[in-house]
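Researcher: We're teaching a course module on how sequence relates to structure. For the next exercise, students receive a sequence and then see the predicted structure as tokens, so they can try to spot secondary structure elements on their own. Here is the exercise chain.
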Amino acid sequence: MTEFEYISVLLSIIIGLAVTQLLSGIARLVRDGRSLAPAWWIMAIIATLLLGSLQVWWISFEWRRIESWTYFSYATFMVLPALLYLLSYLVLPADLHLDGKTLVREFIARRRPFYVLLGMIPFASYFQQWMLVGKVPLNDPDTLLRMAWFVFAVPGFLSPRIAVQAFVACAALVHMLVYISLLFVRLH
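Model: And here is the predicted structure for the students to work with:
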């Protein structure tokens, strides 16, 4: 077993927990929810987080080329999966027994920690890249596309308006689809 294979086990577990949180939350909503129509945009957030979890797991394979790992490089390797798990829990907490209107009201009430964590994603990914390869390219499309997560987090954090939240959710989902299709369709 290589060092990468050994340390990627915990990454896979944390990503698995995030995906489990989202999928079990969807199952609880379908089972217990009376009307999910008001929460349609939260489903866009869930889809974005599912795609993000898969993308982080997918791209982590690129780090297999790192031959020497330190505790600090390993710790930075774990930040993105941890953020995705926390985001998954905030959007669909384990004690969820709600209809769509209550789900929207609950998300709006706890949107600030959600968007703080979302805004941390590009900085965590830059720090991870810097710790693992010693540099962060500043003028490539990936850098610009990653920074969009911070841009999405700002209006979501500031405004409790449902229209703003719905716009951010839809824009983030479209962004994630474009991001994956442009950069990560094939793994090298």
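Model: If you want an answer key for the exercise: Residues 41 and 166 are 5 Å apart (CA to CA). The first helix runs from residue 3 to 32.
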